[in-house]
Design brief:
The chain is built from two helices and six strands; from the N terminus they run E-E-E-H-E-E-H-E. The chain is an alpha/beta fold.
């Protein structure tokens, strides 16, 4: 390895005391591997476990925080307590090789598809319509 990249492989301690084994981070990527109800699939476990080996932190793809925040099918859900066992299983897979597990939380806002949310009710922080749509949330 080129010596100028050696610092990437050194551990790092955050101000609050959390330490990561190196400075490599698996960036969040939405992969749509969850079940339609937002629970984890076996494919998602395999995906994160294999990609978390060797990194200091792994950030999951989008996890919806409310049921009306879905943009597409297959999003991981973190919107109700019965999702906790699924999320714990994901965290354990990421931590298996020493990486820290980070959950990326998400709400689709005006980008949600009416078919993906209950009663087609899209909510947003703005009254600006989705690009290419005449529907204002």
């Amino acid at each position: 390895m080129n010596p100028k990249y050696q610092p990437l492989m050194e551990s790092f301690r955050f101000k609050k005391g959390v330490e990561v084994k190196n400075r490599i981070v698996l960036a969040p990527m939405t992969i749509s591997y969850s079940q339609q109800d937002g629970t984890l699939s076996d494919e998602m476990i395999v995906y994160y476990e294999s990609r978390s080996n060797g990194v200091g932190m792994a950030v999951t793809g989008s996890a919806v925080v409310t049921s009306n925040g879905k943009v597409f099918g297959g999003e991981l859900a973190a919107d109700r307590d019965d999702m906790i066992p699924s999320l714990q299983r994901l965290a354990a897979a990421i931590k298996k090789h020493g990486a820290k597990a980070i959950l990326q939380i998400f709400h689709g806002g005006r980008e949600c598809l009416p078919d993906a949310v209950a009663n087609g009710e899209i909510v947003s922080a703005s009254a600006v319509a989705k690009e290419g749509s005449s529907v204002i949330p």
